[in-house]
Automatic annotation (TrEMBL):
Cofactor(s) needed by this chain: Zn(2+)
Binding site for ATP: 15-25
MF terms (GO), sorted A to Z: ATP binding; ligase activity, forming carbon-nitrogen bonds; zinc ion binding
Subunit-structure text: Homodimer.
Protein name as it appears in the record: 7-cyano-7-deazaguanine synthase
InterPro entries in alphabetical order: QueC, Rossmann-like_a/b/a_fold
Residues the record lists as binding Zn(2+): 191, 200, 203, 206
Pathway note: Purine metabolism; 7-cyano-7-deazaguanine biosynthesis
Native organism taxonomy: Bacteria, Bacillati, Bacillota, Bacilli, Bacillales
Gene Ontology process terms (BP): tRNA queuosine(34) biosynthetic process
Length: 223
């Protein structure tokens, strides 16, 4: 929520091993003295996401929590948990990759973990600029969730969203500023089909990622 200079408190990063959450990991390492990661197993389209998250956590020497949230896949059909569904946009304009209540539950459990580990700060890579129509990626939801978490546990949590107002080009620029553009380009998993790095090049996630990267590299080369 805040972009001000941060102190050296402990932070929990909601982590999938994708471009956005990995950028948030390095952002957190820059601003906090202690960082831990939490990844959720919720029956997502491919198990490679978990493997990638674990590998990055190990390479970066960051403590990693893996929590079982498989109940999510039982609640509603969607293209991220139902592997036989084609990825498409519904009549109301929301992609069928939207998992209802996912960020609500993820932030709730991240808050519970933060409470137990004495962490004040929670970081998530949600973004309203390139939010694909997901209502739980909006700034208004995050602000509401911040208040709810703090009230529910009587703790002054701070949810940080360093990517909230960045498009994908600006997110790549941030990773370059952090000195990890090549790492994120080759090590992270954004592709809905489970292909690390450049991905399949066909799914919506790959299109968004590649369009942002190409725009950033073109801009950088023109300087």
């Amino acid at each position: 929520m805040t972009q001000q200079t941060l102190n050296n408190d402990k932070a929990i990063v909601v982590f999938s091993g994708g471009q956005d959450s990995t950028t948030c990991l390095f952002w957190a390492k820059k601003h906090f003295s202690e960082v831990e990661l939490v990844t959720f197993q919720y029956g997502q389209r491919h198990d490679t996401e978990i493997t990638v998250a674990q590998q990055i956590a190990q390479e970066q020497n960051v403590k990693h929590h893996l929590l079982d949230m498989s109940l999510l896949s039982q609640l509603t059909p969607n293209a991220l948990t139902q592997h036989d569904m084609d990825i498409e946009t519904t009549e109301d304009g929301v992609p069928n990759t939207f998992v209802p209540a996912r960020n609500l539950l993820f932030l709730s459990f991240a808050g519970a973990l933060a409470y137990q580990t004495n962490a004040k700060h929670i970081i998530t890579g949600v973004c309203e600029t390139d939010f694909s129509g997901y209502p739980d990626c909006r700034d208004s939801f995050i602000k509401s969730m911040n208040v709810t978490l703090s009230l529910s546990m009587d703790k002054n949590f701070v949810i940080h969203t360093p990517l909230m107002w960045l498009d994908k080009k600006a997110t790549w620029a941030l990773s370059d500023d952090l000195g990890v553009l090549d790492y994120i380009r080759t090590k992270t998993l954004t592709c809905y089909n489970g292909i690390i790095g450049e991905g399949c090049g066909e799914c919506p996630a790959c299109h968004l990622r590649a369009r942002g990267l190409n725009a950033y590299l073109e801009e950088k080369g023109a300087r």
